[in-house]
Amino acid sequence: MHRLPGLDLLRAIAIVWVMLFHSFIVGGLGPDFAWLSRFGWAGVDIFFVLSGFLIGTQVLRPLQRGESFSFRGFYARRAWRILPAFTIVLALYVLFPALREVPGLQPWWQFATFTLNLLIDSAHNSAFSHAWSLCVEEHFYLVFPCLAWWLTRRPSMLKFTGICVAIVVLGIALRTTVWLHDTALDPPRNWFLEDIYYPTWMRLDGLLMGIMLAALRVYRPQAWTRWQRHSNAVLVGGLAVACLALWLFRDRTGLLANALGWPLLSLGFGLLVFAGADQRSLIGRWRVPGAGWLAAISYSLYLSHKIAFHVVETTFGAQLQGHALMAFATYASAVLLLGAALHYLVERPCLRLRTQYAEPGQGNRFARIRHFRRDDRRHAGPSSSDGGANAWSGAAQVGSAAAEQGTSKSPV
After folding, report:
1. 263 preceded by a cis bond (ω within 30 of 0)
2. With a cut of 70, which residues of the chain have pLDDT below it?
3. Burial bucket for residue 260 (CB in 10 Å: 0-12, 13-18, 19+)
């Protein structure tokens, strides 16, 4: 499988950033290096943009070509990708309370039904709370293919643009309304996480940005290619916009940050993803040793890193006090070892099984739904469905790089 190093690098940065942010559960990085972790929660938003782009490309490409689209195949591939490692980690949290970073854990069924982000009591049950972002992604996987199929029956750039603008504007209005309401509560409650940060409908900006990139790439390939000639300028612009958004988030719970910061941050990261998808850009040519490996195991790292932090802290925390370098090396080694074990013992074997049972070229194993634009019908032969789907399958691996290798995994 051909990978795009620029996107791998972004994924590696995202997972490292998230883990640095979560180091607060073992005391953080100390005052001299706190700046490294302060905005680490934003790594999740990089994951969201990547998911929107990579999954969006996989869904939109066959629809644009008038090829068959297997809903069952798509959901089966996602299940093989997400559920095995997630189930193992959830079982550890439920069955072995000593492994939890904090004692309180929401009921297991909220994790199993991916409703945690809508029901969590974050003040009392924050163990494995980083699974909230998996809930957002699962909701995206569930809804987007159906919505894309419906919208692309009669493709309209005006309709698509209108929907995107409406989602962004409604998101700004909704977050503003919730902020004004919740900040006036007396006594105050833990409203930021539960009412703004976790709910799916508040966190659509990153996924939407990725989908917009995918739509541009699939439906306007000439414009995509033309803009990629300026990918380094886009990269600089993305960094500038992301920095502006993070400046707004210097007060993470402030009104301006929560009204405008999320779409701005998603725009900045979207520009970085656009640049990363071009192998001729600076970020696309930059080979960082270990980045590809971190990207490949990022999902397992995301799921398990808090357990590793907690086990090291409870086992060796006293001995590591006052030895900053040794503490960092010990925590980092434990996180990488546990994440790698989960990846190689659970993730990879299940991905191999997926290729046997859930890949798109499995004939009529899965129910397929097919539709054509009017101008496609006269060109489509009776057997083009399976052949086209198989041909696109290879192209998708090249074009979307590690779409199946790394799922945005997120948290905070």
Report:
1. no
2. 1-2, 358-412
3. middle
